[in-house]
Design a protein that fits this description.
The chain has 110 residues and is mostly helical. It is 81% helix and 0% strand.
């Protein structure tokens, strides 16, 4: 996912004192998104997959807040902030679409 690479790249320029705080949290949130998706898709049950997709969506929300915090601390330009948020919104929509698809398959099984 592009958001992981973008997040790692932009946080390289954050102040060193943020390396254990905001930088680490942003990188963890960004990395968690594809990790949760992969783990969910590897599960044998749709309900379990849904739980991991919810977790991925929660990580998107965390990263969104951290991007805004970074902008408010002047670590990001408005242009970079908007690019990151646009990418994050796109990935969030893909997760929601997967959840809807799986919800449909859950309904079909009943």
């Amino acid at each position: 996912m592009a958001i992981v690479n973008s997040t790692y790249k932009i946080t390289e320029n954050f102040p060193k004192e943020e390396s254990k705080a905001l930088t680490a949290r942003m990188r963890k949130s960004a990395s968690s998104i594809p990790s949760y998706i992969k783990e969910g898709l590897s599960r044998g049950y749709d309900a379990e997959c849904q739980q991991f997709l919810y977790a991925a969506l929660e990580s998107c929300g965390e990263l969104e807040k951290q991007i805004i915090d970074s902008f408010n601390q002047s670590y990001l330009s408005d242009k970079i902030k908007e690019e990151l948020l646009d990418n994050l919104r796109y990935e969030s929509r893909m997760i929601v679409d997967m959840m809807r698809f799986i919800s449909g398959s859950l309904i079909d099984k009943e």
